[in-house]
Request: fold
Amino acid sequence: MKQMLIAAVAALLVAGCATATVGKPFNAANVGQLQEGVSSITEARGLLGEPWQVQTTGTGEHLYIWQYIRSDAKSALVTVSVDTTTQQAALVFGADGKLLRAANLINVPAPKPASVVKPVNWNPAPTRGNERATGSSKEQQLQELQNTPGLSYEEYQRRYKAITGQ
Reply:
């Protein structure tokens, strides 16, 4: 009887649970309400709360990161289960405080793209470093750039400036 009691207490000590979190929960659906070129840092903070981290680049852009990671681990005598929830929105704002683009999104919707208004007789001129400029609109080039995987931040900026003529 005494051995069974010791075994039961040992089993209870071995079984357990733990929770670890990084960041604060935020309403991920609100990221989809932001619009590139229009939404401000103030608006993003109002919709998402205070960011987990803020970084400033050498070009004056600001990277705001909202992140929430929660891991719940439960263990029994011979099994362990871990449930993890991850949300991240890394948004780049210009020196003027307007949303430029989403740098990284995990389990959140993308912001609305910037609307581009073109004059009736608009014809894109070739720009230095971008040979395809005459074949597609700035909007198409920017969309292609945004969908290009593996670009460094500096290369992205160089191509962005070439497309927009900055």
